[in-house]
Amino acid sequence: MIQTLNIIGGGMAGSEAAWQAANAGIQVVIHEMRPKVETFAHRTGNLGEMVCSNSFRSDDHEQNAVGLLHWEMMQANGLIMQTAYQHRLPAGGALAVDRDPFAESVTAALKAHPNISVSYEEITALPDDDNWIIATGPLTSGALAEAIAAETGAEALAFFDAIAPIVYHDSINMDVAWMQSRYDKGETEEERTAYLNCPMTKDQYEAFIDALLMAEKTEFKEGETAGYFDGCLPIEVMAERGRETLRFGPMKPVGLTNANDPENKPYAVVQLRRDNALGTLYNIVGFQTKMKYGAQKAVFKTIPGLENAEFARLGGIHRNTFINSPTLLDAQMRLRSRPNIRFAGQITGVEGYVESAAMGLLAGRMAVAEITGQALPSVPNTTAMGALVTHITGGAEAKTFQPMNVNFGLFPALDGVKGGRRNRKDRYKAYTDRAKADWQAWLGQTALDAA
């Protein structure tokens, strides 16, 4: 009897899970409610649509945990990473992509796969039988979120995610702004000039902070609380934490020299990163916001170089739902009360496109093993994949569980490797060397036969 794997949600996690399972010979149905049922943040019905940043963050697989995750996903024939590299944009040491062609390519690849079909209907209840992966992400529909909450016996945890604005390049004043990656990072001239920089004097910075603090903000609905994920704080929330917070965060002036005025060091710098291959759109890095639209335009136009800025998209805020995975999921990412259902992606409490896709990759492989009756060894927690899945399925403290990016703090310590900031480079290289060896060994042990 042919068993089908049903996947709810066609974002990063759902798309990757479908790809992994289909390549192992499993028949897969992706249930994606868009574009029939829209969300606040999505613009299209494409699978793998990027709704916030267009960056997969650091691509350094020797010194950075997320770069290591890129590497591990490529070794496992990951669709999301393969497609990201196909649509890569200059971004210094980061992996940024042309978001629309990226999602179109993901959609085309999945729809062309003979083992994958897509159903554009909203799933509103938890299924009682068959094999399912719920990968609905931070924008899980209200009906399904209620069904999950009812099943788990607890209210869904939630925080708020904010979206950064996108500016038309031809509306930026290049007599003020200049192109440079921080510390001139990158192997090519295009990489070394991947970011657009807008400088601020001390007076301009202070005026900008005042404007942020005074700006009209989005109101929360009754019963909602502002539990932000620290890695994606709205810019005005950062400003509320201290007037210098932004200058030591997304607006730090280090590693940059103003090409238009090299003798004067900026007090603060606003960076913009290319958002499409044409170079016509740039997103303001780290400027997620919950300011109202009119306030955004007024405040952001006080930034030198953006006085006449025109916006392709303004920032926004949306609810981000996730479950308390350490208490609800087993080591195979199955819902303990309904083991026919797995969870994957941001709804499990991982944060970021890469982490979401990675958990989709594992969930897809775990589902294949179960459907085909094959043994699947535990993923080594010395790998980026293993460290993440271990964290969400029991490694984290359930009482204080919050969304987490991959980081070396999730990895088991190395014997004989010195700690401390001074030895960090050698330590990180040792982490990544160990992870690569263990990941390749795990992949070699888990070659899944086609169903």
From TrEMBL:
Can you give the residue ranges of the MnmG N-terminal domain?
5-374
According to its UniProt entry, one GO biological process term is:
tRNA wobble uridine modification
Q: Keywords on this record?
A: Cytoplasm, FAD, Flavoprotein, Methyltransferase, NAD, NADP, Transferase, tRNA processing
Enzyme Commission code(s) on record: 2.1.1.74
* Localization per Swiss-Prot or TrEMBL: Cytoplasm
In terms of Pfam families, this protein maps to: GIDA
Provide the cofactor list for this protein.
FAD
> Could you say which protein family the record assigns here?
Belongs to the MnmG family. TrmFO subfamily.
Q: What is this protein called?
A: Methylenetetrahydrofolate--tRNA-(uracil-5-)-methyltransferase TrmFO
